[in-house]
Amino acid sequence: MNTLVSTIREKYLHALDQIATAARKSNRNPAEARLVVVTKSQPLEVAQAAIEAGARILGENYPEEGVTKIQSLGNQTGVEWHMIGHVQSRKARLVADHFALLHSLDSLKLAQRLSRFAGEAERILPVLLEFNVGGEETKSGWNASDESTWDSLLPELAGLLDLPHLRICGLMSMPPLGKDAEDSRRFFRQVRRLRDHLADQLPGADWSELSMGTSMDYVVAVEEGATLVRVGTAIVGERRHTSEADASWTP
Length: 251
Ligand SMILES: *Cc1c(COP(=O)(O)O)cnc(C)c1O
Known about the structure:
alpha/beta; 41% helix; binds pyridoxal-5'-phosphate
């Protein structure tokens, strides 16, 4: 094992251990909380090392960058690639063709395009719906910060259930950046309450997945019911660059 792999492996195993402890603490089965290792803006060798270190789910934010990695590394058995970032309409086909799960579905229009492209690719794309529970202007997702407005979202969300080539599996959220992990707890609880509400109001879909928690707060997220945590820097280190532009990424 080279140094990069062993460094990542140590952090990966530590994260798994933290997740298992948090799950047991809240009387959950540790197997219900899966770890997505976020390799966005990391070079190919870091993604490769994460897989060698044991990562089974990799998360990417930018479709082109993700697809390049999938095409270089994706044929390894048992490895899943998830799209976790905002998807622009014109990138929808890349996502429909290449990713195992989209965490960040944030509009009906995008959903309609994804369903069409998934149909053309003769597949069903599993998706999570992204909700903005902090109400921040800069965040994507349906605004769910005010519980009294939840029911006004139902007609649009019901429209998603009718799309033939998407399969809704649950919710995703990215709470406001707090000063420590405890600041996220009330937002994670709100996401879970929203999930329970949607499961009640729109029983035609599966609402079981909750994607929430990043490097700074994934332990709290698991305590509050996360089934997928998205951890980048705590496992693979600082990102090499933070450019939003796919095109600037080179392997
Ligand atoms: C970058 C990112 C993460 C991972 O963040 P870290 O702080 O590196 O753990 C998780 N989720 C989303 C949506 C991201 O964009």
